[in-house]
Design brief:
Length: 414
């Protein structure tokens, strides 16, 4: 059963992360919003050392030892710990959070679909002396939410036993940092058999410095501006045979594709946690500004005796708590290795909707002050929208939820 009491180890980590959010993220939040793509090295280097001291990477949490292995006998909390950390970091600044080393979808894909040898080879890099970055490249100009439309190809050169990748990828979060880092890597999705549809889709680890892969563009964005979002081209890019995640043979089923897609079952609740962090920051600041103007929330009174603003604030707080509970449930299921695609998508849909509505309404309620750059509210409004878009749009995640609730397969409900 889910315990609604936050475990002590998570509380301890959150206390440390809160200090970082308050003292290292909030003070520079506006600066890095205005200096798009400038890499925040001081923050990155500090967080790299902090993450190492805590024994894990941000998107691939350290696996707990079992009692038989000499560990403490307690419920697994790796993803729940990660969710709490991300919520607090996003409270500090969502863009800076996305600049964390060793914390992007690439490492999550390796953790979800890689072999033990691959996990050791690639994930151990994040515990070295210097920060290492990773990314995942899936979206293409003609293939956004519809992954079956991916055109990037991977052909096996049997003479050299290498995969030859060709294609174009866009909207790759942290793609630039991952490829300028000597130990970084990008997990690229490509088809080993285009005629097989999704059954032919595989993920490949392309390491920085590999000839044939290059960044062609950095996007200028509405929000999370400090985080680089890259366009990448692969032209006769050769990677070792063993860098494929999953089986190198095409099966009749889409088992290999589904295995790689399991990445999102773990990371969509993390995006939900990011949304909750932004929304919580917004509500806290909104209430502070209202109190400066003599408006306090009178909790406990009958609804009909409250002002309209009081009712709105209470409704927003209830929405935020519901989003957090959905998020914690999905993370708890991930920790306990319970199949959670429905719950992961529900958390992301609800939290993504909630943060957009909460940040927008906060800007509106404070009028010119909310719309101005004097406060961070307008920035959080811009940062919020990405949580509804990346790692599956709200519309796609609603489809995922509907399919699981109604018992339909993907081709039956589109």
């Amino acid at each position: 059963m889910i315990d609604f009491e936050t475990p002590k180890p998570i509380k301890q980590v959150c206390n440390v992360v809160e200090t970082v959010a308050v003292n290292m993220m909030r003070p520079v939040s506006r600066y890095f919003d205005e200096h798009e793509h400038e890499i925040p090295w001081d923050f990155i280097n500090f967080m790299h050392n902090a993450i190492r001291s805590m024994g894990g990477t941000s998107m691939a949490p350290k696996e707990e030892k079992s009692a038989e292995e000499g560990g403490e006998k307690r419920p697994p909390i790796g993803y729940q710990r990660l969710g709490h950390m991300v919520e607090m970091l996003a409270w500090g600044d969502a863009g800076l959070y996305l600049c964390l080393p060793g914390g992007m979808l690439g490492s999550a894909a390796v953790a979800a679909a890689g072999s033990p040898e691959q996990k050791k080879r690639f994930l151990s890099r994040f515990m070295g002396e210097k920060p290492v970055f990773d990314a995942m490249a899936m979206t293409e100009p003609q293939a956004g939410s519809d992954t079956s439309a991916i055109r990037a190809t991977a052909v096996l050169d049997e003479e050299t036993n290498e995969w030859v990748l060709n294609g174009e990828k866009i909207f790759v979060t942290a793609g630039h940092k991952a490829l300028i880092d000597s130990d970084g890597f990008v997990v690229v999705w490509a088809s080993i058999d285009p005629s097989a549809g999704r059954a032919g889709m595989r993920a490949f680890v392309v390491e920085a410095g590999t000839p044939g892969i290059k960044v062609t563009k950095l996007e200028h964005k509405l929000g999370i501006r400090v985080s680089d979002t890259a366009a990448i081209v692969l032209q006769d890019c050769r990677v070792p045979f063993e860098n494929i995640l999953g089986s190198p043979t095409v099966e009749k089923s889409t088992k290999g594709f589904k295995g790689a897609m399991a990445t999102f079952d773990a990371t969509r609740p993390i995006i939900a946690a990011q949304a909750v962090g932004i929304a919580r920051a917004t509500l806290e600041l909104l209430k502070e500004e209202l109190e400066k103007n003599g408006i306090t929330i009178r909790y406990g009174l009958p609804r009909q005796k409250l002002t309209n603003i009081e009712r709105e604030i209470i409704d927003m707080e209830a929405t935020l708590r519901a989003a957090w509970l959905l998020t914690i449930k999905a993370l708890w299921m991930a920790d306990n290795k319970i199949h959670n695609p429905k719950e992961a998508s529900m958390a992301k849909v609800y939290a993504g909707d909630a943060v957009v509505k909460i940040t927008q309404r906060a800007v509106e309620l404070l009028g010119p002050l909310g719309y101005s750059r004097e406060l961070l509210l307008e920035k959080w409004f811009r940062d919020a929208k990405i949580t509804d878009l990346y790692e599956g749009t709200g519309q796609i995640n609603r489809l995922v939820v509907a399919r699981h609730m109604l018992g339909y397969r993907g081709k039956e409900l589109r």
